[in-house]
Please model this.
Amino acid sequence: MEKVIEQKFYHPSAEVVANATVKDYESLYTYSIENREKFWGEQAETLQWYKKWDNVLDDSNPPFYKWFVGAKTNIIQNALDRHQNTAIRNKLALIWEGEPGDLRTFSYHALNREVCQFANVLKSMGVKKGDVVTIYMPQIPEQLFAMLACAKIGAAHSVVYGGFSHEALADRINDANSRVVITADGGFRRGKIVELKSVVNKAMELSPTMEICITVKRTGQDVYMENDRDYWYHDLKALPIAGYKCETEQMDSGDMLFLLYTSGSTGKPKALVHTHGGFSVYTSTTYRMVFDIKPEDRYWCAADPGWITGHSYIVYGPLMNGATIMLYEGAPNHPYPDRWWKMIDKYGINILYTSPTAIRGLMRFGESWPKRNDLSSLRLLGSVGEPINPEAWKWYHKYIGQERCPIMDTWWQTETGGFMISPLPITPLKPGSATKPFFGNEVAVVDDHGIDVKPGEEGSLVIKSPWPGMTAGVYNDPNRFVDTYWSKYKAQGWYFTGDSAKCDEDGYFWIIGRVDDVIKVSGYRLGTAEIESVMVSHPYVAEAAAIAVPHELKGNGIHIFVILKKGFDGSKELETEMVNFVAEHMGPIARPEEVKVVDSLPKTRSGKIMRRVLKARVLGLPEGDLSTLEE
Ligand code: WT7
Model:
C-alpha cells in the first residue's frame, strides 16, 4: 500500500473553534446524510423566496435532479434586494483596486443602483428572460454589475475568461446563440493594456448570432466601433432609460442563472447550466459554513470572476451573505511581488481564497515580501483549483497565515457549483488533503466496478448522492451530460468526477488529479482534444497529441507531439512557432511548454494515442505495459 503524504494534524486554535459557526462536524454530517432533504430545506429557509417550494428534491428522473420544485425566486432577491431593507444597505459590498492603483468602493445600496442601471440598459437593448448574454471583461466592477444585471432580468450570463482568444470566444458565443456581448476596451495587466474590444470585434466576424456589443471604457485607447452595433456603456448609462430602479424578475427555481463553458475529454468545450434556486442555496450555505463569514469581515477571493470560483465565491455566495468583497484587476507581482500582501494590509482583509499555483508563484520571491506587510487581519485562508503540494501549503500557512489561520482546501468543480469536499475552520488539517465531505454529500473512492478501495489506495472519486448546487446539465446537450458524468457508474447512479483520489484511515480525501483527458494548467482546465484540434489547424501539422507534464509553478505544463504533413521538415524555429500558434489561437493560458516534432506516435491497435507512454518518455520513466501498442 502506498503511503499518503503526511499524517500530522494541524489543529485549529481555541479562538477559531470558539468563533466557528459549525462546532460539531460529525453530528451535523450524520444528520445531513440521514435527513438530506430536511437539511437542505432548513438551509433554504435562511433565504427569502417569492414563493416557497412544494418539494425540496424531485429525483424521479435521475440524473436530472430538480431542487426546490415549485419555488419562485431570483438569486438577486437574496444577493441584493433583501439587503436594501437592513443595515447591510450601508455596508461596503465591494472594494475594488485597479492595477494602476485606482480605487472604487460600493455600498450595497450603491451596488444595487449600478445593477439596476445596467439591467435597464440591457432591457432597452431587448434582452429578456431566457436570453444568453456573453460577458468578456477585465476584472473591473462593471464585470460584476453586468453579471448581476443579467440575473436580475432573468437572462443567463455566459462569462468568457478575458484570456481566451477570439476564436474561443466566438465558439462560445455561437454555441450559446448569444445576441449581446458586454466587454471593455481593455484591462491592465503588468502595466500593459490587455486588448478586449478588438478581440470581440474579431469574434463578431465569426459569429452569425451577435448583434450588439456594449463596451465599458477602462483603458482609453482607440477602439473600432460600428454604428448600430457598438455602444459605449457610459453613453447608455446617461440615457433616461437607465434608471436606478428595476424590478427583479421572478424565476422558477430551476430556471437558468448562467452558463459556464468548461473543457471536457472530448470535442469542444461544453456549457454547464446552473439554476437560480439550487445554486443560491448551495453557494450561500457552503460559503457561510466553510468561510465562517462574520458581519465585519472583509473577504478576498483572488480568482477571476470568469471562472466558477468567481461566480460562486466572489459574486453570489458572498453577496447572499452580505459580505464585503475585495476585487483586484491585475497581476499579483506588479509592480512588486508584495502587491497582494500590501492590499491585505491596506484593506484589512480577513479571509484570502486563492490557488496553489498563485501561492507557488509568490513563494518563489521569498518570505521577505509578505514580512514587509502587516497581515495580522487575516483569520482564514483558502485554496482551490488543484491539489496543493505540502510545501506550498506550509509556506502559505506559515508566512501568510502566520500559523494562526486554518487553510480551507476546497475540492469542487464547475459542475458541482460549490464546495464538495472541504474542511471547516474547526477541522484538524493535513497539508494537501481537502479533508472531508461537505454536509449532505456522500463521497467515495471506488474501483472500476464501484467497489470501495481500501484506505490509502487510489481509485475514482464519485459522489453518490444529489446536492442542490449540482449542474442542471450541459446546455442543449442532455446526452453529453449523461455520457460524461453518469455512464461510468450507471448501475449505481453515481456522479463520476473525472478525478482520482485516495481516502485515508481517518476518512480524509486526497485528490490526485484528473484521470480523463483534461489538463489542469495553473488551475485552469483545458481539454487535450481542444489543444490538439488547434494544433492540427496549423498548416504543416498532420497529427498532434497533447499531454500534461508536472510543472513546478503551473502544476502541469502542456507538451505537444506533432507529426508533420509530407514534405515538411521539423526545426527548432518551427517548434517555437507552433508554441506561439497554440497560445495565439487558444489564449495565453494554453501556451505549451514544448512542441516536439516526431515521426510517429504510440498508438493502440484500435488507433488510440497512448498518452501515458508519451508522458513516460518525457519524464524518462519506464513505459509500462506496452502489450496493446501497435508499432
Ligand atoms: C477540477 C475542477 C472548483 C473551482 C476551480 C476549478 C481540480 C479543484 C481542487 C482541490 C485538488 C482540485 C480537480 C477538479 N481541483 N479543486 N482543492 N484539490 N484538486 O474548477 O475548472 O471545474 O476544475 O479541479 O481536478 O476535478 P474546474
Summary: The mean pLDDT is 95. The longest helix spans residues 108-124. The pocket of WT7 is lined by residues 262, 308-309, 383-387, 409-414, 434, 497-499, 511, 514, 520, 525 (CB under 6 Å). The chain is about 30% helix and 25% strand.
